[in-house]
DNA sequence: CTGAAAGCGCTTACAG
DNA sequence: CTGAAAGCGCTTACAG
């Protein structure tokens, strides 16, 4: 191992001087600084992370707490892990993955053993017990998802209400007057998941603002059950001509089933999807509002880093970052026949 | 912060005794041990990770090196991250996520700053430059994927050759004599990715063993292009009656296109899929050989932990773990008409 | 502008 | 069976 002593000897200075060159917290003469930097480069020196964190009580590590196991593995999880890891690096931090396999005690262990400076909580519910628990242990957190109590901790999320509203208004603007909202799967509605509740609410408000209404239906993970619901919609006397769908993974099944009924998209019905698109749906040219994974990752990581700084005028405490929805054009939107 | 001194004071012993109780490396009387454990529990003591790793040169952290960015984000990545994180916890380790965003230098930084005891390399190629680089830096690695040089480092992988062979033999055993192999996407074949090459090879050898042959076709991420290839197959004078597909994400598109041509599965053609199933294909009842993500994660994590132990009779060096394929029954296999 | 020294919280030979 | 002491590699007041 190359240590700070080796660098100091090579540069002909004291170890403390090397440390000051590294931290930049002291004025250093140009020649001393150059000699130190040259020695660091030549020896391939990197500060020992353990020693540094022991002495400075900063680890430059962010803990990423994965959703509770009850929620199951989420397809979108991998992209957030990747995005947050990249963002953490950009802030000079590393990312430690914490699964809730041991009942949430993973985060407590991280806090007590000082493995991280802050934590990002994924899959945040309207009420999330992890927030208070970590406050009690002195581990600052940032939330991926918008909780009921927006002041409990800094958070970042897509503005789901605005996204649903944008979908409804876009369909309305194209001339549609029979617009339906196919919401998230019913389990998410029943447990009042943040993005589910806010999406439905946004759609209804947008419709009300347009002087109309929008019937809301839950989606389903079971393709057969989803097909029955689609049938019920299109067997009605006045079938929808515009459909906003907050369940992108269901889009292939919906398209296939409609096509089987002789309903063509967008000739007979227009479609706007909202949310996370599985990677293997790349071939589908759907008009959509995509989950801005990279942007959300960058935002929540920035909040986590800010929360772990002692002072910095502490402007971000409890701040929320609401990311506006963006519509991507596709081949599933057209005026009604 | 609760330190070892606080525990020692509460238990009425020396700090070193607390340490010995924790490590178990010294005989301790029952009453002393109980007193120390009671104090630890009461105070909620966890050893400071930085201090521990500084002193013991062990971090109990495994670095997970994500695939090179050239490979793009892989849908299967999230499940491996989750699986390896869970496995690491079971071995008393944490998992640090390293993206190759900065050109592989992330791993070097981890090695030089002693942030981890070992690394798991994901998305290993037949030749992977990371292996030699980490050997040079003294960071032991374990590979998720089977490299060309199997002795270069311990590795774990599904036996892709056996999986392809099992698919071909199963179709043959059901009576099929016109079996085709739809391999991975051509980019993977062209770059000679391990699982791609081994799958094709396994299918060909199995067919040869049965005294027959198996035409091999590359798959495509472009649904339209894939449809053209399917058409070419089924427009031929002797269309396949059995299809082994090493590209599960393409299955919905294949089924839809075949159905559009009036080809029914399994009436007219049987299908066996091999590989990772996107989470949202749950509704499809496909006969298949699934990527054993949990098993592979546990195996590679065990290898990484073993590689970081100084001695332990060093039995695992360069050992490979080849996981046998398992066939899952589904509704896409039947005897030929 | 730079250095000598103390100390972060542990582990582990050394000693009894 | 247990304790006192050294030291891992840093950072940062203290001193000049």
Automatic annotation (TrEMBL), chains A, B:
HTH cro/C1-type domain segment(s): 3-32
InterPro entries per the UniProt record, alphabetical: Cro/C1-type_HTH (IPR001387), HTH_LacI (IPR000843), LacI/GalR-like_sensor (IPR046335), Lambda_DNA-bd_dom_sf (IPR010982), Peripla_BP_I (IPR028082)
Any Pfam family matching the protein: LacI
CDD domains: HTH_LacI
Region (Disordered): 307-337
Domain HTH lacI-type: start-end pairs: 2-56
Sorted UniProt keywords: DNA-binding, Transcription, Transcription regulation
Superkingdom as given in the UniProt entry: Bacteria
Gene Ontology molecular function: DNA binding
SMART domains according to UniProt: HTH_LACI
Name recorded for this polypeptide: LacI family DNA-binding transcriptional regulator
């Amino acid at each position: 191992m190359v240590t700070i002593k080796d660098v100091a000897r090579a540069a002909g200075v004291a170890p403390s001087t090397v440390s000051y060159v590294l931290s930049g917290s002291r004025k250093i003469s140009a020649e001393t600084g150059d000699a130190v930097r040259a020695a660091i480069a030549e020896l391939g020196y990197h500060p020992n992370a353990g020693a540094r964190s022991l002495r400075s009580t900063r680890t430059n590590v962010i803990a990423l707490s994965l959703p509770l196991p009850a929620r199951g593995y989420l397809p979108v999880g991998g992209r957030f892990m990747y995005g947050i890891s990249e963002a953490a690096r950009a802030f000079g931090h590393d990312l430690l993955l914490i699964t809730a396999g041991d009942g949430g005690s993973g985060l407590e262990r991280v806090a007590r053993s000082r493995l991280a400076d802050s934590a990002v909580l994924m899959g945040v519910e309207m009420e999330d017990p992890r927030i208070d628990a970590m406050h009690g242990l002195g581990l600052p957190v940032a939330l991926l998802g918008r909780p009921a109590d927006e002041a409990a901790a800094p958070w970042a999320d897509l503005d789901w209400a605005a996204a649903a509203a944008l979908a409804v208004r876009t369909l309305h603007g194209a001339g549609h007057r029979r617009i339906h909202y196919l919401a998230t799967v019913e389990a998410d509605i029943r447990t009042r998941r943040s993005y589910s509740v806010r999406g439905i609410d946004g759609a209804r408000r947008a419709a009300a603002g347009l002087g109309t209404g929008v019937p809301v239906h839950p989606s389903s993970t079971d393709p057969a059950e989803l097909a029955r619901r689609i049938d019920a919609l299109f067997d009605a006397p006045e079938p929808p001509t515009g459909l906003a769908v907050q369940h992108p993974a269901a889009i292939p099944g919906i398209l296939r089933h409609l096509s089987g009924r002789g309903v063509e998209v967008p000739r007979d019905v227009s479609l706007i999807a909202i949310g996370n698109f599985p990677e293997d749906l790349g071939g589908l040219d759907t008009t959509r509002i995509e989950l801005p994974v990279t942007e959300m990752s960058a935002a929540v990581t920035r909040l986590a880093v800010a929360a772990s700084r002692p002072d910095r005028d502490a402007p971000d405490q409890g701040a929320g970052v609401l990311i506006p929805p963006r519509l991507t054009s596709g081949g599933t939107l057209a005026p009604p026949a």
